[in-house]
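Format notes (please read before filing issues)

Several people have asked whether sequences and structure tokens are stored in separate files. They are not. Every record keeps both together, in the order shown below: the sequence lines, then the token lines. Line labels are part of the format and must not be stripped during preprocessing.
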Amino acid sequence: AVRAESPAAKAGVRHGDVVIGIDGHSVAGDAQEALKALTMVLRSKIPTQPVELQLYRAGGVVTVTVSLGAK
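Then the structure lines:
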């Protein structure tokens, strides 16, 4: 789920979107591999830093830019 008013929601990420890449790094594979890849990229970033998410949405791929929030 995408929380209202979250950085993801503000960037246009929608319920049902599937993250398939971040900043050009693929996060495809089984769920555990994808989560590990996504986590590794996010840990290298700092709060407020923008990242590009590649999303699978309704049969196509879209890219959105998200400014990371603080923990």
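For reference, the curators noted about this record: The helical segments are 7-11, 31-43. The CA atoms of residues 20 and 26 lie 6 Å apart.
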